[in-house]
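Chapter summary example.
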Amino acid sequence: EQAALGLALTPGDAVIDPLLTALRDRDSQVREKAAIGLAFRRDPRIIEPLLAAITDEDGQVREKAAIALGASGDVRAIEALKKAASDPDSQVREKAVAGLVLLGMRR
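The structure predicted for these 107 residues follows.
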C-alpha cells in the first residue's frame, strides 16, 4: 500500500505502468492508491483500466476511479461515469457526478 501511495505521488509518466499494475492488485487499498495516482495523467493507456476499476467490488476504488476518469479529459469515460452516477454507494454516485463535471472542464 505504501509503495502504491509513493507511486501515486510521483510526477511523470515513468510511474504509469507500475500504477496500472497496482490497479489490479488483490489489496483494495493498493488499487485505491493506484487510481488516485492515475488522476490527472494524460495518457491514453490509463482509460481502459480505469473503466474496469469503476466497477470494482470496493466502493473506495470505484470512487477514486470516477475522479481519475473525470480528470482524464477522455470522452470514453462519459458512459461509465453516467452509469456510476447510479451506483448503490452514495459516495461513488457523488464522485461520478463530480467526475462528469471535471471531465467537462478538462475538455
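To summarize the output: DSSP finds seven helices and no strands in the chain.
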